[in-house]
Amino acid sequence: MFKKESIEKIGVDNKKWQQLFQESVEKAPERLKRFSTVSDHPVQNLYTPLDIKDLDYSNDIGFPNQYPFTRGIQPTMYRGRLWTMRMFAGLGSARDTNKRFHLLVNEGQTGLSTAFDMPTLMGYDTDSPRSRGECGKCGVAIDSLKDMEILFDGLPIDKITTSMTINPPAPVVWAMYIAMAEKRGISRGVIGGTIQNDMLKEFIAQKTFMCPPRPSMRLITDTVEFATKEVPRWNPISISGYHIREAGSTAVQELAFTLSDGITYVEAALERGLDVDSFAPRLSFFFNSHLDFFEEIAKYRAARRMWARIMKEKFKAKDPRSMWLRFHTQTAGCSLTAQQPYNNVIRTAIEALAAVLGGTQSLHTNSLDEVLAIPTEEAATIALRTQQIIAEESGVANTIDPMGGSFYVERLTRDMEEEALEYIRKIDDMGGMVAAIEKNYPQLEIADAAYKYQKQIDSKEKTVVGVNKYVTEEELPVEILQIEAELEENQIKWTNQIKDTRDNKKVKESLEKLGEATQRDDNLMYLIIDAVKEYATEQEVCDVFREAFGIYRDPGVY
Amino acid sequence: MNQKRKIRILVAKPGLDGHDRGSRIIARAYRDAGFEVVYTGLHQTPEEVVQAAIQEDVDMIGLSSLAGAHMYLFPRVLELLKENGADDIVVCGGGIFPEEDIPKLKKIGIKEIFTPGTPLGEVVNWVEENVKPRS
């Protein structure tokens, strides 16, 4: 990018300047013994063209919408259309969440995102003994198609896209969504949205489990194939680094493990006989935005470049859209503090800004009270306003990839790419991500990083305002949203009522058919849709999988 | 002999909550502090937690909860300990709890509650000061 003579001159000048810098430090020492990112990546005092002299503008950075897409995937980026402001919401009953969805849409939100409660996430109905005390606590409780119908009642699902954070039972919940749409006369060819459906990162980090890794891959590949053939506007997997980061990984681990998971899904779909360009454009990603501003921006840029190269070079994709790394971002829940909770508004704003400067396609901003409970309406509105201020007041969305060309950001982008590739190679050597998970490799790498970070906080090597520095005794009161205790009983009653009024003979038959199909190579999605249309509950369908494929239990390594 | 026995701790994740970053860090911190640690892993029923505690003959149970089901799960663990004559096992909790739940949990017998931001040293010291080998 630079002429040889200029690099030489900058080299000479840099040496002189570094001497001056050292002299100043001898007089007055630096504020820290060692400067590093939140992920502990060392940071130099200054970055210059010397740090990026090996980069080639056309090959490594390039233009928006052009390979390797470092600067963004769309030609116009936010000058054309802003990112989708997609706030994750779900609480209590389907009716409660439906009300929150209407509120968010009325406030200007442009996409829906559904949070489910723990039993739904794990594939249990509310009346399971394992579900006791959990109903509606962390999201909405969905037992049957009836709940799905209520959840989206009155919402324009032919115009708005819906994201559903669901993993082991993803095929079942997606089937309910499709069935719900079809009952409303909206065809599966029209609906758009995303199911998270990324089991690899569940084993690694988020830990909602149902079946072991290998049969889980089969279910996921069924959904990829089904989306490709039947639901073309749907993203069947959201390959997620978010939870990996929340579990305590570094930024590089988040990047590496996520892309490694992506590689595994692509390989599985290719083995199924799908053409890479038929499904790869519908794979989407989901990243965390933590507090280290530049490190996060570099992570998104590195992710785009790496995925483009992997898809083109390793998987021989031809359609540029197969090479696009489209991603959703959520600000880091783990960076929020229960202490002085109003500070969380500022943290979230910084993280949201990094996501935008990193070129995200959609964004959830956490509410200030998210570390304490499910957000109140007021807190969720402030979080949405944070995005609107960044979008429409700050001016950062007026030009594409404004951080491109920053010596620091470009260097960090390259460093992260190299370090992540190193991890990906190591996982390949182990036999791929499924084998690595079976060896608990990523799980333990993350546990190491999390423990190290906690010790850095305890030793005050890293600052967390309000926790290990600037501590105040008096806590500001925050209003907390509580889920009513009767919810669980009501939900159980409601689901029992559905079980009593549906055609139980048809339910039984549809579940038996599904059970038989698990023993063949059939794509199970068709039969799952048949079963949920008969109002088979989520757990009834999931029990078929548990019976056929076995149950995965947490190895409990630490 | 009793003097020499190390404190044995069960770190447990009752319920369906998958947030195990904290519980695994705490398990490591206890281990590094010289305690004997048994970690249940995720998704345990209260029955499974109590069974593990008795089988492993622990002196303390650390219950982790970050998904809001503590007001069912924690009392249930205490109840089962009592039923099994093992209510001399010290039980404490860590995770996310609404402020008003903390006194309620302490009242029914949860010895201490640790919330986010507590330094590891404090958690370890608490064990040293409050837990003795049960014999």
Q: What descriptors fit this protein?
A:
heterodimer, A: 558 residues, alpha/beta, TIM Barrel, nine-stranded parallel sheet, 9 strands, globular, B: 135 residues, Rossmann fold, five-stranded parallel sheet, 18% strand
Topology:
The complex is a heterodimer of chains A (558) and B (135).
Chain A lengths: L3 H24 L29 H5 L15 H4 L3 E6 L4 H13 L4 E5 L2 H5 L22 H7 L9 E5 L4 H14 L9 E3 L3 H8 L6 H18 L3 E2 L1 E4 L1 H5 L4 H21 L4 H4 L3 E7 L3 H22 L5 H4 L3 E5 L11 H15 L4 E3 L12 H16 L14 H23 L3 H6 L2 H18 L27 H16 L2 H15 L6 H9 L4 H12 L9
Parallel strand pairs in A: 1-2, 1-9, 2-3, 3-4, 4-5, 6-7, 7-8, 8-9
Chain B lengths: L7 E5 L8 H12 L3 E4 L6 H10 L4 E6 L4 H14 L6 E6 L5 H7 L4 E3 L5 H11 L5
Parallel strand pairs in B: 1-2, 1-3, 3-4, 4-5
Helix pairs in contact in B: 2-3
Q: What CATH architecture of chain B do you see? A: 3-Layer(aba) Sandwich
Could you tell me the mean pLDDT of chain A? 96
- The coarse silhouette of chain B is globular
Low-confidence segments of chain A, given as residue ranges, are none
Looking across the biggest beta sheet of chain B, what order are the strands in? Answer: 2-1-3-4-5
Strand arrangement in the largest pleated sheet of chain A: 5-4-3-2-1-9-8-7-6
Range of helix content of chain B: 40-55%
The CATH topology of chain B corresponds to: Rossmann fold
By DSSP (H or I, 4+ residues per run), the number of helices of chain A equals 23
CATH topology of chain A: TIM Barrel
Our Rg estimate of chain B from Cα atoms comes to 14 Å
Determine the mean pLDDT of chain B: 94
